[in-house]
Amino acid sequence: MAEAQSAAAMPDAAIGSRLSEAGGVAITGADLSRPLSPDLREAILAAFRDNHILVFRSQDLGKDQQFAFTHQFGEIEDHVGRHAAAARYGLVHTVSNLDEDGRPTTRLSAAGNYHWHTDKSYHAVPSLMTVLHARELPPEGGDTQFANMTMAYDALPEATKLRIDGLRAVHSWAASRRRAGAPPPSEIEMRERPPVDHPVVRTHPETGAKALYIGNHASHILGMPEEEGEALLLDLLEHATQPQFVYTHHWQDGDLVLWDNRCLLHRAIANYEMAKHRRVLHRTVVTGTVPF
Ligand code: OGA
Ligand code: MN
After folding, report:
1. Cα separation of 214 and 211, whole Å?
2. What is the best residue among 130, 261, 272, 274 to mutate for testing ligand 1's pocket, by most ligand atoms within 8 Å of CB?
3. Paired strand residues for 197
4. pTM of the predicted model, to two decimals?
5. Strand ranges of the sheet holding 218-221, from the earlier edge strand across to the other edge
6. N or C: which end of the chain has fewer CB within 10 A?
7. How far is CA 203 from CA 130, 153, 168, 187, 211, in A?
8. Is 96 near ligand 1, meaning CB less than 6 Å away?
9. Which of 117, 168, 249, 262 is catalytic?
10. Cβ(135) – ligand 1 distance below 6 Å
């Protein structure tokens, strides 16, 4: 029903069938380089709410066009990373495996992307929608995985649901970097990004569905010994990222993928020859709201 309505609102666009139990639909025939009609925007939002991950095929957006596309869904998040290239990034930044000289490398600046996470959960106001547009892809691999945190929550034993009810996790950029094996942040960076806490189970503001809100940035539980809290979070993460909750996206040239950080974890997969092939994607993010 929702699908038929959405398709009707997109005369040139077609919504495919669900890509996996966990989420995802492919949308063909839409031209995202131009302003969206109100109907198309509504249809995209409905498909986003119902499927969590949208895969638009055959797009070719420049950075300005990607900015304009994303801005139709809300305020765009600034890139706060402090590494050398940050100034160049602006509000549309590049995710890649290239070093400062533009050569493929295994020494990634964003190593944390290869661990399950939800974007910017170490901020008081974390990300809502992340948009990634493939610009250069390896011949194979370089996948991105998504795990559905509503399915994962629903599948928990009742005793666990009771145990985690009302708990808050501390999310910290420093802890996240430590776990990802990245160098520790500077003192200035630490002061700019103090740890924050969010509910372990958050409620989706549009659907009312409960979802686990965990991942690599979640370090421990407020008011619980750190080791015990970390162990609990790791147990939950192991449960939540089982194959039946996961959609694996195999990128195609021209793909523009967007996802809902409020109910998904995601990670990049290092299943390609990173030191040999280029993987370049452009990234924009819509700012979310305080999780509850
Ligand atoms: C991101 C991210 C994963 C990837 O851009 O937020 O986690 O596959 N990317 O590049
Ligand atoms: Mn991410």
Report:
1. 9
2. 130
3. 170
4. 0.93
5. 196-199, 168-171, 218-221
6. N
7. 19, 11, 13, 34, 6
8. no
9. 117
10. no
Question: Does residue 113's CB lie within 6 angstroms of at least one atom of ligand 1?
Answer: yes
pLDDT per position as a tens digit, 132-186: 999 999 999 999 999 999 999 999 999 999 999 999 999 999 989 988 888 888 8
Distances in Å between the Cα of 93 and the Cα atoms of 63, 133, 229, 234 are 8, 11, 34, 30
C-alpha 263 – ligand 2 centre gap (Å): 13
The alpha carbon of 129 and the centre of ligand 2 are apart by a number of angstroms equal to: 10
* C-alpha pair distances (Å), 171 with each of 15, 34, 105, 126: 36, 37, 29, 11
Tokens of 112: 């944390």
Residue nearest to atom 8 of ligand 1 (CA): 268
Of 137, 100, 116, nearest to 274 (Cα)? 137
Please tell me the distance from the alpha carbon of residue 221 to that of residue 120, in angstroms, as a whole number. 18
